[in-house]
Inverse folding.
């Protein structure tokens, strides 16, 4: 797994986009007390369920790999001239 340029900034934006996706779909309403890890896991499982992203093998499901996977999903949605 190769780290993306600006991966931490991409992850923050990807998490926001993932929350909008999940709530817009009507699948969940996140509470302000939900941690980023909980949101990350839920968004990952939802994107896999909707067949938007390929699932990781279950033994590789860890926060670091999920952050990377969510960042990759988000970067594919950005226009080519986006600063991130």
């Amino acid at each position: 797994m190769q780290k993306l340029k600006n991966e931490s900034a991409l992850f923050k934006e990807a998490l926001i986009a993932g929350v909008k996706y999940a709530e817009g779909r009507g699948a969940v309403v996140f509470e302000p007390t939900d941690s980023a890890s909980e949101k990350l896991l839920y968004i990952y499982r939802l994107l896999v369920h909707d067949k938007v992203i390929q699932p990781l093998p279950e033994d590789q499901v860890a926060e670091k790999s999920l952050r990377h996977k969510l960042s990759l999903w988000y970067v594919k949605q950005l226009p080519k001239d986006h600063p991130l």
Q: What stands out?
A: The radius of gyration is 12 Å. Residues 8-14+33-75 form one domain. The mean pLDDT is 90.
